[in-house]
């Protein structure tokens, strides 16, 4: 199952299909509005994790870990929720907590205004409370409901943020107001960068020189990570 989204002016046109690209359980970019049920696959030139811009991006893991994973997502994407709940804990337990892998979070927010709002709040949380970013992110995906089901507007995000210990929701909200343009520029940069790599689906990750798109089985990510260690 996929969803389709449209061509976006932020994305760089691409023509070469990434060899060996995997696609299943993803929201895919191929129309101006998201719709359910379409098939698609990211396209682009050969990728290399060393080309991904990671400075200032939220991350978990040892900053000097031997392997870096870049991960593009949308807080409204149901397949991202599936990936983060079912697969992420396994990757974290085996590779992140052991110091082997750092996961860098990149934005590909396209499922409407609430996606952008969530992305802006995520940037504020990271800037003010980096050590609490991961608990906040986990809570966001746990709270995700059906697309356009109501959760994800500013009021619900603020209410959720108030429940995360170690975060002052008032300060986070103030930061989103004061730095809205800066944060939205960061979101746009991540989206453009995704396009430059031919990434057109969420969730999508780059591991070494491979793009993996969709909520794939843990074994797929395990094999790609093991090849880098």
UniProtKB/TrEMBL annotation:
Residues 54-227 form the Thioredoxin-like fold domain. Belongs to the thioredoxin family. DsbA subfamily. This is Thioredoxin-like fold domain-containing protein. It comes from the Bacteria. It comes from Candidatus Kaiserbacteria bacterium RIFCSPHIGHO2_12_FULL_56_13. Keywords: Disulfide bond, Membrane, Oxidoreductase, Redox-active center, Signal, Transmembrane, Transmembrane helix. One of its GO terms (molecular function) is oxidoreductase activity. InterPro entries: Thioredoxin-like_fold, Thioredoxin-like_sf. The chain crosses the membrane at residues 12-29.
